[in-house]
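Researcher: Structure prediction, please.
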Amino acid sequence: MKFLREKSLIFGSLYTVNEPHMIERYNRALEGFGLSPTKLKEFQIDMTGFSPEVAEELEDMQYLDPEGINRRFIILTPSQSELPVVHTFFSNTEDLMVEFFNLNARALYALTIKDVVFGEIEDSVFKVEDIEELLAIEQVEFKLSTPSKLLAKSVHLKTMMERLRKEPDGWRNDQLLNDMVETVKVTGDIRTNTLLPDEVIFRHDTFWTAHFGGIYIFIDEETTTVIGNPDAPGFRRSRPWQVSYLDIEDKKSVFSFLVDTGRIELPRGSWIERTGLLNMRSQMVVFWLARELEPELDFNQATQSWTKSWVARNAGLVENEGSIPLIAWASAKLSDWSELDMNEINPQHRFVLCRAMPEHKDRFLINRLISEYLPFDYMMRYIYNKPAFYKEYESWPESFREFAVEEIGRNYLSDRAGYRQRYYH
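Model: Predicted structure follows.
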C-alpha cells in the first residue's frame, strides 16, 4: 500500500492539518468522542475528518466508525466539502456529507471560524446484526456539538430573543437582558451570522454497505431490492412481502433487474463508438490474462502491436476466457448501429458490454455493482469500487501493480470528471 500512498491512489487529495490551533480543535473533538488526543504535529483528514495517520496512531481504523453505523465526523473547515471520503461502511456517506455541507454552508462557515464542529450521522439503528437493521434505515439526522457549546448557546440565545419579542415586560427583565449580553459575547449576532444549521435530516436512499461481505440496497417506489450474499443474516427473511432478494453471484437475475429498472445502458453503436469503452476493456482483459500467465512481464512494453501478437500466441486462453471474442463480435455488429440481442450472450459476460445509465441518479452505485463482475477492469474498480481494487491490488505481481497505478494516475487522476464523462457518463 506504500506505493499507492506515494502515488496518491489511497488517502490522496486530503487536507493537511498542521497549525497548532487546528490540531488543538481536532483534539477537543476527539475528547468529545471519549478518544485520546493525537500527539501528531501534522496529519491529513478527509471530508468527514477521518485521518489515516490518527487511525494508525490510535491503532483503530474505526475510530470515527466504531460499529460501522452512525458515522462520526469532525469539521475543522468548510473546505472539507471539497475532499473525498476515504474510509466508510456506507457508499452514500459522501453524498450525505456533501448535501449537509451545501445546505448549511453559512452556518458551518460561522461556526468553524470560532470552533470545531463534531457529531454523528445518526439513524434509528445502533448496531447491524441482520439485514433488517439495514432496511430500517430510512433517514439520518446530523447530531452536532462544539466544545465551546456554541450551538447550545445559539439555541439559548434564539430562545431568549423570542421571549424578548413576545413577553410584554421582556425589556424590563434585567436578568434576561444580562444573560443575552453575556451569550452574545460568545456567539456574536446570530441574526446576521447564524450559527444554527438549517438542514440536519436527510433521506437514506439507495446504498452499498460493507456489512455482511457487501450488500447493495436499491430503493424504488414500490419495492426494495437487496443484492448480496445469501448467507447474510436475514437474507430472504426480512420483509419478504416488500423486499426482493438477489444472490450477487446470480448474474442473469442481477442483469435482468438492472435492465428492467432502467439502471443499465445496453450496448448501442452511438455510445460504444463515441466512448471507446469496449476497446479499452478488451486491452485490459489482455493485461489481466498476461498478468497470470507471465507475472514478470514488463507491461510498459505492452503496445498495441504487442497486444495483438500476445492474443494470437495465446488464442486458446483468450477464447476460453471469452471476453475478447465477445467484444470483437459486438463491436462488428454495432459498427453499423445494429442492436444486440442480449439473450444470445452468456449471462457471465453480459456486463462486459454495458455501463450504468448515465442519467440515472444511482449511476455511481450501479457502476460499482457492474465492477463486481469485471475483475479485469482495474480502472472501473478504482473509480467506483475502491475496496475491491485495493483487495485485488494485494494479489498482483509487482510489475502489474506499477503498470496499473501509473495508468490510473496518468489517465484518471489528472482529470477525474473528464475521464468519467468520456467513458461512463
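Model: The radius of gyration is 26 Å.
Researcher: Thanks, that helps.
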